[in-house]
Input
Amino acid sequence: MQHATITRSTQASRIAGILALCFLVYIGAAPWWAGSADLRLITEILFYLALASMWNLLAGYAGLISVGQHAYVGLGGYLMFSCVLFLGMNPLWSIPVAGVAGALISIPVAWLVFRLKGPYFAIGTWVVAEVFRLSAAQMSSVGGGSGLSIPVAVMRDLGRKPDREMLIYFTAFALCVGAILLVYFLLRSRVGLALTAIRDNEVASSSLGVKIGRIKLFVYVAAAAVTTMIGALIFVTKLRISPDAAFSVNDWTVFVIFIVVIGGIGTIEGPIIGTLLFFLLREFLADLGAIYLMILGAMAIGIMLAAPKGLWGLLVSRYDFSIFPVGYRVRR
Output
């Protein structure tokens, strides 16, 4: 008689997990082997990977197609500047404060936009982001439409430039890894089961007792908090902020959606693959100007037609392979 066992991982996924852990250690040690320019590039990659993971959590699992997540990136930047200029806080210490404030602000925002469904929800999130941008442009205390810069003396408090870059890098690394682990452990929990049910069939999951509204609110607030912290750190590196830069839909939403779509929406590995491919294309094609954006658009359309679940989804469908196993498998 053949016995069946229930497991989450396979031998291939365990080997891949060990390799991924080794690569993670290698990337974590980047300040000791990478030059200044390479370190800044890796830091930017970490920013986008964290943002993509949060957008993927919203859209890929909770079904919340938001085109206004740049609202929380810009909010994080302005909260960081406010903490530094008005409260005299260390820029890095202001990041968790920005996260808490972002979570609190996202609750009334969620109450508003959750009244909208489907495409109206997406448009509503974009409108909220525009309200944030216009509000920042009217506030003279934070520079109005022209923005403002962090005083040089404040950055000197973080130490010499190499030490400062290392601190910023490790903070970005921690936020990125934390964002991925948040998604991973969330999906392995009861909340993850509820999200899977909501994604597969929202009506059926509601009839089974899943608290759809509470689950979506929790996911939205969590994504807002992490996105706000990432936004705060992004503008620590930029040293200057303005409404147009902070609430840029292209930089902080469009590119993030592109990353998730080509990598694989609804998978943890998808944003990782998408981020690496996006930066690879940017490094080789950015000099082409507008043609570069046309290539990105054509690639996104092509991948959506050929592989609706993204590149990682195509790989999984052929080889049944996963680095972050979150579901259950039956082994005989």
